[in-house]
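Tokens for chain A. Residues wanted.
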């Protein structure tokens, strides 16, 4: 096997309009393509970060709930690198998001914090 990099992350949301706003307006990801698939009653939103394809956001009618606490089995969280964790934390809190207090990574000495997307998926901001 010769893996090169992660191509994309697929996320299924329960409220497409709310999640689209969260990922584009609040997190600042750019829309590459938005497609409505009539046969599946589903949107597929391709999102990029700094011009690089990153996330596929899907909507499906009545998706089942999933346990998403950070210590549940499966995907633990998404992590985004930022220059200033404290400034980004303040910006997210001004948007009305509940953001955890800033912690320091015991191995790297870098700061990080967590918040959640509209469906409770944990998202981490990690200092560059």
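Reply:
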């Amino acid at each position: 096997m010769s893996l090169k990099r992660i191509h994309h992350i697929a996320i299924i949301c329960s409220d497409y309009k709310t999640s689209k706003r969260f990922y584009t307006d609040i997190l600042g990801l750019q829309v590459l393509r938005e497609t409505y698939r009539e046969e599946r009653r589903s949107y597929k939103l391709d999102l990029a970060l700094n011009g690089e394809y990153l996330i596929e956001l899907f909507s499906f009618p009545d998706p089942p709930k999933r346990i998403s606490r950070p210590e549940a089995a499966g995907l633990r969280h998404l992590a985004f690198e930022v220059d200033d964790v404290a400034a980004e934390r303040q910006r997210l809190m001004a948007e009305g998001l509940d953001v955890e207090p800033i912690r320091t990574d015991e191995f790297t000495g870098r700061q990080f914090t967590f918040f959640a997307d509209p469906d409770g998926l944990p998202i981490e901001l990690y200092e560059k």
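The chain has a mean pLDDT of 92. Residues 1-62 form a domain with the 2,3-Dihydroxybiphenyl 1,2-Dioxygenase; domain 1 fold (CATH 3.10.180.10).
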